[in-house]
Amino acid sequence: MPPTISWSDLAGRRVGVWGLGVEGSANLRKLDELGIPAAVRVDDRPGEGVVPTAEGGLEALGGCDVVVKSPGISRYRDDLRSLEAAGVPVVGGLGLWLAGADRDRVVCVTGTKGKSTTTSVAGHLGAGLGQRVLMCGNLGVAPWDPEAPQDVDWWVVETSSYQATDVVLGPAVVAVTSLSQDHLDWHGGPEHYYRDKLSLCRRPGVRRVVADGDSPLLREHTDLLGPGVRWVHATDDPGWTGGLGLLGEHNVRNALVARAALVELGVPGADDDARIAAAAGDFAGLGSRLRPVGRVDGVDFVDDSLSTNVLPTLAAVDAFRGRRVALLVGGHDRGIDYAPLADGLTGRADLLVVCLPDSGPRIAEALRAGAPDLDVREVPALFDGVHAAFEWARPDGVVLLSPAAPSFGQYRNYEDRAADFVRSMESVSER
Predict the structure, then answer these.
(1) 351-374 in b/e burial notation, b at 16+ Cβ within 10 A?
(2) What is the pLDDT at residue 431?
(3) Following DSSP, what letter does each residue of 269-293 receive, concatenated?
(4) Do residues 203 and 159 touch, judged by C-beta distance below 8 A?
(5) Lateral strand order in the sheet of 90-92
(6) CA 353 distance to own-chain centroid
(7) Element (H, E) at 134
(8) Mean pLDDT, to the nearest integer, of 204-222?
(9) Residue 161 and which of 108, 297, 365, 391 are 20 to 30 A apart at CA?
(10) Which long-range contacts (CB under 8 A, 24 or more apart) does 375-380 make?
(11) Is the Cβ–Cβ distance between 264 and 242 less than 8 Å?
């Protein structure tokens, strides 16, 4: 675990910045605001003013008093461990911020999937209650970034498993939306991932953990959640979530987790059903999360490109029970187990599964082994998959892009994949 250091504690120290992506840039801006010049800038990729990690970067970081790393740099890397073994603390921006923040006004939202929706709902409800709420972290702006608003009442921080490992002092409330396998290449295995993901719950300062009570895997790992857990179930809904316009039972639960987190945090009005129902209106939702993008000849096209593992994909399919669904799956292969996908889709006679590169063949193999009655097809590209899915789904079905895999390799990011999905849909309508 990194030491307890805040951003202000870096004054007078020789500080290296490792990783220059979105958060790395925020780290540089914060150091500049504090008047602390970065002694060295290191990244795994070369660039102007950057020392590549493998070409002298590690040695340069070894000459620093403290290294501030980006979340994508795994704590299990040998080069990071060698720095720590040499006595150089390696810390993350979120951990530095929490060490100096008013943590009684902070909720961190974590979980394998549902983090962004839960964070956005919490921010929307808080604003509807007349509060100044900053939705931040993995979702968008870093709370310590000088460009982020500072005159706020509450912080709702979407927190990835990567960022959780950098945290030493916890927020007042942690919300856990779900748990399933993910990011195994970073964490080194499922149990390491579960431990790292839930480590936030057991940090000093955490008063309450609000957790998905419908998750068997979370129940199996209750010991990792700490002593003060409030379980939330989809059946707890008194009816106000309908005002948000979200699809799927899992999103109902995400909304209930968001509201419960605000209640536990002490946000005024969060415990009042009538005020929450009024605050729920006009929620804009999020792109690429069960978002309808068009209809062609009676067939609905739904973009769920941000579903990058099994759990949200099963939830997405379940949102359309009673309709024929052509499901598009596959993308960057992170080595996760797709047997649970087969288990969850078993018995669905109204389902076609179209498997896309790169992980498509492995997903198809798992489905054919675990759910042999499923109609499973492999295609060379998303364009071909959309056309095959449309023909099968006619006249009144759903074409659902919920890939259970990231977009890396084939696409720049999930937005790029979603845009290709829309283009492919448009090509169907133009025939």
Answers:
(1) bbbbbbbebbebbbebbeebbeeb
(2) 63
(3) TTT-HHHHHHHHTT----TTSSEEE
(4) no
(5) 51-52, 38-43, 15-18, 66-69, 90-92
(6) 24
(7) strand 133-137
(8) 96
(9) 365
(10) 375/351, 377/352, 377/353, 378/354, 379/354, 379/355
(11) no
Report the candidate in 28, 208, 4, 12 with the shortest Cα–Cα distance to residue 99: 4
Alpha-carbon distance values, 355 to 295, 302, 379 (Å): 22, 16, 6
Six token digits for residue 160: 């990835």
What is the pLDDT at residue 99? 97
* Bridge partners (DSSP) listed for residue 68: 17, 91
Give, as one character, the DSSP assignment of residue 202.
G
User: Torsion angle, CA of 379/402/181/79, rounded to 10 degrees?
Assistant: 70
Residues with Cβ within 8 Å of residue 63, at least 6 apart in sequence: 14, 16, 39, 40
- The SS3 of residue 309 is coil
d(CA 245, CA 51) in angstroms, rounded, equals: 48
The encoded tokens of residue 61 equal: 């970081």
Residue 200 confidence (pLDDT) above 90? yes
Q: Which two tokens stand for residue 318?
A: 């379940």
* Strand order across the beta sheet in which 351-355 lies: 291-296, 299-303, 398-401, 325-329, 351-355, 375-378
pLDDT of 11 > 90? The answer is yes
Q: What's the token pair of residue 404?
A: 């259970």
| CA–CA separation, 211 and 232 (whole Å) | 6
Q: pTM value?
A: 0.81
What digits encode the pLDDT tens for the residues 246-275? 888 889 999 999 999 999 999 999 999 999
The answer to whether residues 99 and 169 touch, using CB atoms and an 8 Å cutoff, is yes
Q: What is the reported pLDDT for 227?
A: 87
C-beta pairs of 135-139 under 8 Å, 24+ apart in sequence: 137/94, 137/108, 137/109, 137/163, 138/71, 138/163, 139/115
- Say whether 83 sits in a helix, a strand or coil: helix
Nearest alpha carbon to residue 348 among 363, 377, 327? 327
Q: Cα–chain-centroid distance for residue 204?
A: 23
Which amino acid does the sequence have at 229? V
Mean pLDDT on 98-103: 97
DSSP one-letter string for 242-274: GGGT--SHHHHHHHHHHHHHHHHHT-TTTT-HH
Q: What residue has token string 């790029």? A: 416
| Nearby residues of 244 by Cβ (< 8 Å), 6 or more positions away | 121, 124, 251, 255, 280, 283, 285
